[in-house]
Amino acid sequence: MTKTKSMIYCGLFTALIAAGAFIKIPVPVVPFTLQYLFTMLAGLFLGSRRGMISVVAYMLLGLAGLPIFSEGGGIWYIFKPSFGYIIGFCLGTYVTGLIAESLKQKTVFRYLLANLAGLMIVYTCGMVYYYVICNYVIDTPIGIWPLILYCFLLAVPGDIALSVLGAVIAKRVRPVVLQYLFDSKSNVRLETEELAK
Question: How far apart are CA 72 and CA 87, in angstroms?
């Protein structure tokens, strides 16, 4: 992939992630956004390094003051307990992309496993950050069980559903996307079985 293409597609996914923060799915108890879906697809389509660059760019733009986080933007956002999930998006995207790159058989199930691995990174970072900020920074203590209940058990079903959706999208769309992402020399490396299936 040329540098110009890299910048264009990284910028495109940065914009999608920002838009995803404001697309809310109104489900009972804990509504969720499409932000995680686009961070996951960034890893699946762009790979570990470029995918993570897209998410890091989103995070830095938000911290610089652009109102692209779900509740605005600015450096103060690092003191929000939920900021840990944005950090988790960066690491989770890298892990998802890394696993997807190493897959020999490109099946929906294997893409799903890659997505779930990234999802666990997101929730681990998010919950640890939430606990530390609440209990040691802003002095609004939260116990382990309420943390698990509200920050994981009630929230994760929607993201698991998005992981399944992302795996299906990757299986059907990724081969086509790769043809446009890479130049003719790089296309030699395109997995033929991915196009055949």
Answer: 16
Angle (deg, nearest 10), helices 48-63 and 35-46: 140
Rounded-to-10 torsion of CA 40, 44, 47, 50: -40
pLDDT mean by block of 10 residues, the chain; 197 residues: 82 96 76 90 94 97 94 92 95 96 92 97 97 94 94 92 96 82 50 47
Other residues' Cβ atoms within 10 Å of the Cβ of residue 23? 13
- DSSP state, residue 16: H
What pTM does this model have? 0.88
How many angstroms separate the CA atoms of 5 and 177, rounded?
A: 12
